[in-house]
Amino acid sequence: MTNNSNENKIWYALYVKSRTEKKVAEELKAENIEFYLPLEKKLRQWSDRKKWVEEPLFRSYIFVNITPKEYFRVLYLPGAVKYVSFEGNAVPVPQQQIEAIKIYLEESDPFLLENEKWDVGQPVEVIAGKLTGLKGVLITAKNKKRVKVQIDVVGSSIILQIPKSKLRQIPGSKVVK
Fold first, then answer.
1. Of 39, 72, 93, which marks where a domain is finished?
2. CB neighbours of 170 closer than 8 A, spacing ≥ 6?
3. Which of 42, 136, 165, 166 could join 128 via S-S bond, C-beta 3.0 to 4.6 A?
4. Which one of 60, 93, 126 terminates a domain?
5. Which has the closest alpha carbon to 1: 98, 111, 136?
6. pLDDT higher than 80, residue 30
7. HEC letters along the chain
8. Per-residue pLDDT tens digits for 62-102
9. Between the ranges 87-91, 140-144, 148-152, where is the mean pLDDT highest?
10. Do residues 73 and 79 make contact, with C-beta atoms less than 8 angstroms apart?
11. 10 Å Cβ neighbour count for 52?
12. Residue 143: φ, ψ to 5°
């Protein structure tokens, strides 16, 4: 990831040609454009061996944090296709979603939680920490010791383990069962 001044910068999800995520990331780095390519380690099996490889968490997507001046420069890079858009306008990705992805990838051990019962399917909101304001849906509360929350990012979902003390149920929301 390259770091420029945050003046008027907005995060966008850039759709790239299939299997070119790392190449586009190299192009962005060479152009000194801030980007985030979330990678996860996976154990791959070949006929003769197993190997740990780093693969994009979201296939064909890279996140770019750009100024209006860099908007078209990014689109002209080899492998770049288009921004994720709605009704012809690129959709900004909130900083909280970028932070949620980073936390998801850095997460190693589940958080210990209070023995409070929450219903699966309950909409929740993060009320403390870097992810404050991020909304999701409670998907598991295994053994009452940990809670998993589903967050939607770029048309995909990621599952985060978040301390119950940092969550609140969203008032007036129905539980989906």
1. 93
2. 122, 123, 124, 125, 135
3. 166
4. 93
5. 98
6. yes
7. CCCCCCCCCEEEEEEECCCCHHHHHHHHHHCCCEEECCEEEEEEECCCCEEEEEEECCCCEEEEEECHHHHHHHHCCCCEEEECEECCEECECCHHHHHHHHHHHHCCCCCCCCCCCCCCCCEEEECCCCCCCCEEEEEECHHHCCCEEEEEECCEEEEEECCHHHEEECCCCCCCC
8. 999 999 999 999 999 999 999 999 999 999 999 999 998 88
9. 87-91
10. no
11. 8
12. 50, 20
**Residue 7 structure tokens:** 């003046």
Residue 108 Cα distances to 46, 53, 80, 111, 144, angstroms = 27, 18, 32, 9, 18
Contact 162, 153 (CB under 8 A): no
Its domain, for residue 164, covers: 95-177
pLDDT band, residue 2 (cuts 50/70/90) = low
